[in-house]
Design goal:
CATH topology of the largest domain: Amidase signature (AS) enzymes
Bound molecules: glutamine
CATH superfamily of the largest domain: Amidase signature (AS) domain
Shape: globular
Strand order of the largest sheet: 1-3-2-6-8-7-12-13-11-9-10
CATH architecture of the largest domain: Alpha-Beta Complex
Number of strands: 13
Number of domains: 2
Largest sheet: 11 strands, mixed
Distance between the termini: 23 Å
Helix content: 25-40%
């Protein structure tokens, strides 16, 4: 099911260099989407729409110069609005909803000449790390079909790894772009919070949510990020900062002079093969001349706790609008409004989402708010400060993404183990820092990835470093 990375990169390069047109690229993409249907990557594949758009692009090739992503087949996670397509966020509650507008990131992609292939599978509302918790079932890892693709942007990762999409949008609240990227052997970036507009993304935990990009090489990540980034009048939290040329940053490989690498003690939760693969990635930088300093990461247990407390509190507030009355599928219940509210929410939301809403609502109630939520915001601030100290004087921080290979689909983890396994990924989220997962070979015959974290707004530097070991 997987299309080898060399082949994916070759196809991308041919399109970029103008050797192939939009229709050819989209044709190849749809052929792969059909061949890899079992991966469960797409919730909705818009074959006709994609072909029409590709044809229209090829009919006006003179526009190519103004369209940096001319003909690029892109998949979009189903919690990002694509006009006219179903937009479910993986929830039964939104099974009947079609987006009446484009998210800002989607309209920017279209303007740049990208072709939207369809929407991809996810854990319901982005809550999870496996893409098994959506109402339409699990995605499979194209490199190992009886294993998870990772999550929550697992459909986007499967779409790229199977060769259907040349690039995909995901969302990363606490790892959901980087973790599936690592599990599927891809590049996946979580930008600095505020770098990319969230208008049209279904909010999970707003102070942590960011739209990110998955692709097969750093240049494609840079091109797509450069297109979607930048201030948006429709999202007041988007940063009014110039957007550097990320594509050229990604095409200028730069061996880092200094890297901070997490301490050996931080690697203890990894299984031995993953630990070995991580150390190999460190040695690769050293062999290229990088000076490596080892330093312990901020305390991961309190960071995980802070992340989940904040994420659940914000989720309970964000998801309160899905009540079956104003938004979401309405179930009649006992005929009263209160009954419809209760039944719509208890049937519409899956178990994990209900658990998080309840936990979040309890947390925000009187008595808990100052003690627990207050403590979580203090831990969040301390985590950011500690990360900034680790970054001072070095080009980036290098750390793992996952503790172990993608698990088998028939061996589910308890939610608590899944939360703990997010320990490396929630750090950049709490710190509002950019982080990029990069492929780093294999262990046990399965894709392995590491991540680079950088100072705020330094996505370009991360892409240059990634290119140096690509
Ligand atoms: N696994 C984490 C969670 O469930 C991260 C998910 C995400 O980044 N959307 O919250």
């Amino acid at each position: 099911m997987v299309l080898p990375a060399v082949e994916r990169r070759r196809r991308s390069a041919r399109l970029r260099e103008g050797e192939t047109g939009a229709e050819t690229a989209v044709g190849l993409a749809l052929e792969r989407a059909r061949a890899a249907r079992d991966a469960g990557a797409f919730l909705h594949l818009d074959e006709a729409g994609a072909r029409d758009r590709a044809r229209a692009l090829d009919r006006a090739p003179e526009g190519r110069a103004d369209r940096p992503l001319f003909g690029l087949p892109v998949a979009v996670k189903d919690n990002i609005a694509v006009r006219g397509l179903p937009s479910t966020s993986g929830s039964a509650l939104l099974a009947d909803y079609r987006a009446p507008f484009d998210a800002t990131v989607v309209s920017r992609l279209r303007r740049a000449g990208a072709v939207i292939l369809g929407t991809t599978n996810l854990d319901e509302f982005g809550m999870g790390s496996s893409t098994t918790r959506g109402f339409r079932g699990a995605s499979r890892n194209p490199a190992a079909p009886h294993r998870i693709a990772g999550g929550s942007s697992g459909g986007s990762a499967a779409a790229v790894a199977s060769g259907a999409a040349f690039a995909a949008l995901g969302t990363d609240t606490g790892g959901s772009v980087r973790q599936p990227a690592a599990h599927c052997g891809l590049y996946g970036i979580r930008p600095t919070w505020g770098r990319v507009s969230r208008f049209g993304m279904t909010a999970y935990a707003s102070s942590l949510d960011q739209v990110g990009v998955l692709a097969s090489d750093p240049v494609e990540v840079g091109r797509v990020l450069g297109t979607i980034a930048g201030a948006d009048p429709r999202d007041a939290t988007s940063a009014r900062r110039p957007v550097p040329d990320f594509a050229s940053a990604a095409s200028r490989p730069r061996t880092p002079r200094r890297l901070t690498v997490c301490a050996d003690a931080d690697l203890a939760p990894l299984d031995p093969a993953s630990r070995g693969a991580f150390q190999r990635a460190v040695r690769r930088f050293q062999a290229a001349g990088t000076r490596v300093r080892r330093a312990p990461l901020p305390d991961a247990d309190s960071a995980v706790a802070a992340y989940y407390l904040i994420a659940c509190a914000e989720a309970s507030s964000n998801l309160s609008r899905f009540d079956g009355l104003r938004y979401g599928r309405r179930e009649a219940g006992d005929g009263t409004l209160a009954g419809a509210y209760r039944v719509s929410r208890s049937r519409g939301f899956g178990a994990e989402v209900r658990r998080r809403i309840l936990l979040g609502a309890a947390l925000l109630s009187r008595g808990y708010k100052d003690a627990v939520y207050g403590a979580a915001t203090v831990a969040r601030r301390r985590t950011r400060e500690a990360l900034l100290r680790l970054l001072a004087g070095s080009d980036a921080l290098l750390l793992p993404v996952t503790l172990s290979p993608p698990r088998r689909l028939d061996r589910p983890d308890p939610a608590s183990a899944e939360y703990r396994a997010d320990r490396f990924n929630i750090l950049a989220a709490l710190g509002s820092l950019p982080a990029l997962a990069i492929p780093a070979g294999e262990r046990d015959g399965l894709p392995f990835g590491v991540q680079l974290m950088g100072p705020p707004w330094e996505e370009g530097a991360l892409l240059s470093v990634a290119a140096s070991v690509a």
